[in-house]
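Need a sequence for this fold. Nothing fancy.
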């Protein structure tokens, strides 16, 4: 079975968010499961071709409304593995600048849209070249969701939705003109009712199979609350929609081998205590109460308003708060203000991979009160590092953390996205921490949880098999 991953990001060579972690880990596990898998993505200017032992292949030719485009093609190997990589290069469209243009101006957003439209045209041309023809084209998020339409009838397609909140929305007429398509050649206009086209909605309509990155999120996006205007399309495709949990790299996230922390495991927790002492000392925090850590983006989605709203809790409890993150400038300012006002709180605005590991290792509890969470990686790392996760019951958080009220509980789970519900969760954490035997058993149980990429790969392999057994891909008529 031959599978081609098409995506905008991949760890470690081109990472912005969690998508990169999936694309950087799942293909390796699939290869172990016997799948002939390759990855195709833009060759961003920061990618060092020498480290990938990349060789140039014959060019690809595509045409857009602005004229013909010649794409350089490089083939190399995934660092530290044997997964082949295909990198598509074009100075004007694909390679120049950051992965995503974050300026937010219309010009920057259109440049980003054009980048991924050209990328998908080039991927379609690559598939048609037939030097190595995939059985399945595995498309990730809106940046690859036009591919099921472009390749219909030639290859089976699976679209993985990592975050429905990023729909790839743009003026439909501009997209048609850029792609040199007629008005009736884009089968589904699903946007805001004002002539906008959602590329993700188009992919939902045209891919052979769909999946999200957790079972609960697959159900949540069928509702108006989290369907974000696409729930109608998704309900029509619900029989083709499944949820598959992401995994975690057990070697990369292993406190027994992590060079950034004092080593420990579930059977020998002395190192965990040493990391706690180091973390408190680094930030000059005092007190014997629990340490609450947060690592992530400071955004509405991640529940930042609940964290900054818990100021009174930390003002009146013998507990420490350590925050590492960046994002919305308002939340950044509020987190700074909280840390300045409280002697038992500290905040680092930005991201530092080493410090992140040290916070996981040194924290007693890990805060992840997300408004919604397609899967989540932070809670999986926290479990692995013995930081009891405090999570809201949504998406992948609900699927991976069991409340301590149950026999095999691994964390503290609350339901409502309200300050009072979060406050109650923090109070439960203090109570749990005071019961040292119960707290230790919760930590040990969490550290022994297994969320491996091999398990995820087995589920994807079963979905691939189901897709292959369904016969030829949908006809253009049925896809509409």
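Here you go.
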């Amino acid at each position: 079975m031959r599978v081609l991953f098409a995506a905008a990001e991949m760890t470690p060579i081109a990472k912005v968010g969690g998508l990169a972690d999936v694309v950087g880990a799942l293909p390796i596990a699939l290869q172990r499961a016997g799948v002939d898998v390759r990855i195709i993505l833009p060759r961003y200017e920061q990618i060092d071709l020498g480290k990938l032992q990349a060789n140039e292949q014959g060019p690809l030719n595509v045409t857009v409304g602005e004229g013909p485009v010649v794409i350089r093609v490089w083939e190399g190997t995934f660092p530290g593995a044997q997964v082949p990589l295909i990198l598509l290069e074009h100075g004007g469209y694909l390679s120049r600048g950051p992965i995503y243009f974050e300026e937010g101006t219309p010009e920057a957003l259109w440049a980003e849209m054009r980048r991924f439209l050209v990328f998908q045209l080039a991927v379609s041309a690559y598939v048609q070249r037939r030097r190595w023809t995939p059985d399945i084209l595995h498309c990730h998020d809106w940046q690859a969701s036009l591919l099921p339409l472009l390749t219909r009838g030639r290859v089976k397609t699976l679209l993985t939705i990592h975050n429905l909140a990023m729909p790839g929305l743009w003026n439909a007429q501009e997209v048609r003109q850029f792609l040199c398509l007629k008005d009736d050649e884009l089968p589904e206009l699903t946007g805001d009712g004002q002539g906008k086209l959602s590329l993700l909605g188009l992919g939902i309509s045209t891919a052979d199979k769909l999946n999200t990155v957790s079972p609960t999120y697959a159900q949540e996006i069928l509702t108006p609350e989290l369907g974000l205007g696409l729930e109608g399309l998704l309900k029509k495709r619900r029989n083709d929609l499944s949820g598959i949990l992401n995994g975690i790299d057990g070697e990369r996230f292993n406190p027994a081998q992590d060079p950034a922390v004092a080593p420990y495991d579930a059977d020998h927790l002395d190192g965990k205590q040493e990391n706690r002492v180091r973390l408190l000392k680094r930030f000059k925090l005092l007190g014997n109460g629990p340490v609450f850590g947060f690592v992530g983006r400071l955004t509405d989605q991640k529940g930042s308003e609940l964290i900054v709203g818990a100021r009174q809790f930390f003002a009146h409890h013998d507990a420490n708060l350590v925050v590492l993150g960046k994002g919305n400038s308002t939340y950044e300012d509020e987190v700074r203000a909280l840390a300045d006002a409280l002697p038992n709180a500290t905040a680092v605005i930005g991201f530092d991979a080493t410090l992140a590991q040290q916070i996981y290792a040194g924290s007693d509890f890990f805060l992840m009160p997300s408004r919604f969470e397609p899967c989540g990686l932070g809670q999986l790392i926290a479990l692995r590092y013995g930081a009891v996760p405090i999570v809201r019951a949504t998406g992948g958080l609900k699927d991976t953390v069991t409340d301590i009220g149950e026999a095999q509980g691994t964390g503290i789970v609350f339901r409502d996205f309200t300050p009072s519900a979060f406050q109650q969760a923090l109070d439960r954490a203090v109570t749990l921490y005071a019961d040292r035997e119960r707290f230790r058993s919760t930590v040990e149980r969490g550290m022994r949880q297994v969320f491996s990429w091999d398990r995820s790969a087995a589920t994807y392999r079963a979905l691939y098999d189901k897709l292959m057994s369904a016969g030829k891909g949908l006809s253009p008529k049925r896809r509409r």
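For context: Residues 472-480 have pLDDT under 50 and may be disordered.
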